[in-house]
Structure formats: C-alpha cells, structure tokens
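Narrative of accomplishments. A recurring question from our advisory board has been how the design workflow behaves on a single, concrete structure rather than in aggregate. To address it, we present the structure tokens for one chain from the evaluation set, followed by the sequence designed for it. No filtering or post-editing was applied between the two.
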C-alpha cells in the first residue's frame, strides 16, 4: 500500500487536516439535495415562461447555474445564461427572468446584479441563506428561496442547484422532470458509501482519482454535457486542495489546447476525462483519439464515468465524485479543505 493510500485510509488524520469537518458536509450532500428539491420560492414567482433566464452568481453560487444550463441542453428553447460579474448583460431585458444566487447573500457582484434587475424592472428571484440579499429580498417582497446557512458555498451545491429546477418547472420551463430529479437524488445517495472516508482506497473511486493525481496538476476534460462539471472539478480542486487545475471540453479543446500537450510540462499533469454513457459516438471517438495522441505525454490518464440515465443524475453524480476527489487531494496535500483565507481576505479588502 502506498504512503498516500495509507494517509487516505487513516480516519484519525482526517480530523487533523479537516478540523472544520468538510467531510461531514460531503457525507450530508445526498440529504442536502433531497431537502433542496423540496424548497420553494416565497412568495411564488407567478410569471409566464420568460424568453431568457439569467442566473447571476459567483464561484460556488454560479456552479448551480452552470449545471442547470448543462442539464437544460437542447430540451429548453429558452437560453439559460450564467452571468458572473457586476451588473447584468443587455440580454437581461423585457421579460427576462433574473435568478440572483448568493449563498452568503453578501457577494458584491450579485448585489449589483440585483440593483440592475430592480432598475430594469425585471422579474427577479433570490436564492440565498441570508446576508444583504436575504434582507433586501424580504424587505422588498422579492420572491426568495431561503437556504439553511452554515455551509461553505461550494459545499452547498445541492441547495444552489435543485431550487432552480423547481423554480423553472413552476413557471413552465421543465429542465428535468420530477422522475429525473428523483433518479438524481437516488444516484447521489447510492454513491455515498463508495466514496466516503470509511471506504478504503482500493475500493474508493474518489480516493483512487486523488491518488492518481497526487502531486500532478489535474487537467479535466468533459464532453458537450460533462464539460460544465469539468469546470466545477477545477474550482473544487483550487478551493479545497489549494492547487492549480485546468478544465476544458471536447470538441473545443481539440482545436487549441491539444497543442499544449506537446510541452514537456505535460508530464506534470494528470489527464482526467469525464465520460458520459450518453455522449455522441463522435465525442467518444474524440476522447479515444485524444488519448492516443497525448496520453503518453501526460503524467497519467484517469477516466471517471457519470452515473445514472437522466442528464441531471449524470451531471450531479460527476460533481459529487469531484467534490470527494478534491477533498481527498486536500488531505493528501495536508491542507484544510474548508477554509479559503485568500478569498476571504480579498472580500474583506473590497468592502
Ligand atoms: C466558497 C466558494 C466561493 C463563493 C463565492 C461567492 O466556498 O465556493 O466560490 O461561492 O465567493 O460567494 P457566495 O456563494 O456566498 O455568493
């Protein structure tokens, strides 16, 4: 057994490296998703289907919007635009619906998006655990989904995704059917025992992925659907394990990033493919050819397959495996997966 595997199977070490109990939040994730799927906006939105949906959020709070958009895919004629930044884009006009998502409720960019939505008199709904966004929405009677507090935003992905699905279904935009939501909840629940710290390295896919990456930097590539999760894996690695990660999607990366794999530094990277049993044959072929062309340049190649049949289950299962993988990477690196001191300091200086 390798030194890394020993470390990942030492449950006492978890408590030393993870004093805030990020693992408890991850163990609780399936329950979180179930609770999140029951949440509703108060007061209800009560609008006709909008021509465009703009999800305003940053970091972990934007991730729910990314998954919402990836899940909607070709099913919705209405575009879901994820806006990361101050204000709102010009497409947020007329009857456009703005979903302002901030777990803490205090993110400056999202509060400025709310200002813009109010100024443009757009239909608006807030998804938050409180803060200034919670206070403002309750004072102004803006429909609000109130989330339980106490989590790190990136570990509240269930709360930041499932209410969006319900909100949109209630106004006639079905991103996922109730049956697909039910399947996603079951799939995530079934994944837990295989990924949790008690499950030893040789049987634990998330630990194996972390061990394969180890000192290398992960370069995570998804397909047209799983590309959104690749980006989430990257940000989870950055925030939890505090190291660099790359993300991209096929086919686009075949047209540019592929050339970077000729660099000698590729040997310091772990190629990670996020695969999906439902990916088109052309995409499966591209993964195979990409592996033939650049696999030998990488330090190693890992693959992780989505679980479930519906698109939502496939996306959420991959996101959940990525959360655990980045958690174990943090443990291997001996860094607290919970705290984000530089992000906190930046927010403090910007106030
Ligand atoms: C921290 C995290 C960050 C935050 C981001 C926005 O765990 O994931 O990416 O999500 O700084 O803050 P919130 O989500 O509170 O609006």
């Amino acid at each position: 057994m390798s030194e890394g595997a020993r470390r990942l199977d030492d449950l006492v070490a978890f408590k030393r490296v993870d004093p805030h109990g990020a693992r408890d939040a991850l163990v609780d994730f399936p329950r979180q998703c179930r609770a999140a799927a029951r949440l509703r906006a108060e007061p209800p939105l009560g609008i006709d289907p909008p021509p465009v949906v703009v999800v305003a959020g940053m970091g972990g709070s934007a991730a729910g919007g990314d998954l919402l958009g990836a899940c909607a895919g070709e099913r919705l004629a209405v575009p879901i635009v994820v806006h990361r930044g101050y204000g709102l884009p010009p497409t947020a006009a007329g009857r456009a619906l703005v979903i302002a998502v901030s777990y803490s409720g205090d993110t400056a960019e999202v509060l400025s998006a709310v200002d813009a939505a109010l100024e443009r008199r757009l239909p608006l709904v807030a998804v938050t655990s409180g803060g200034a966004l919670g206070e403002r929405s309750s004072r102004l009677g803006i429909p609000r989904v109130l989330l339980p507090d106490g989590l790190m935003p990136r570990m509240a992905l269930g709360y930041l995704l499932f209410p969006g699905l319900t909100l949109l279904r209630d106004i006639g935009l079905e991103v996922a059917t109730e049956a697909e939501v039910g399947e996603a909840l079951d799939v995530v629940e079934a994944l837990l025992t295989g990924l949790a710290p008690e499950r030893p390295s040789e049987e634990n896919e998330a630990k194996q992925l972390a061990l394969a990456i180890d000192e290398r930097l992960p370069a995570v590539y998804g397909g047209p659907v799983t590309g959104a999760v690749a980006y989430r894996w990257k940000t989870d690695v950055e925030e939890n394990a505090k190291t660099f990660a790359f993300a991209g999607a096929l086919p686009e990366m075949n047209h540019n990033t592929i050339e970077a794999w000729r660099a000698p530094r590729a040997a310091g990277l772990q190629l990670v493919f996020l695969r999906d049993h439902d990916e088109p044959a052309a995409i499966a072929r591209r993964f195979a050819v990409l592996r033939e062309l650049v696999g030998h340049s990488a330090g190693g190649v890992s693959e992780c397959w989505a679980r479930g049949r519906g698109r939502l289950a496939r996306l959420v299962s991959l996101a959940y495996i990525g959360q655990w993988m980045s958690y174990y990477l943090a443990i291997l690196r001996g860094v607290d997966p919970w705290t984000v001191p530089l992000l906190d300091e930046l927010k403090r200086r910007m106030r």
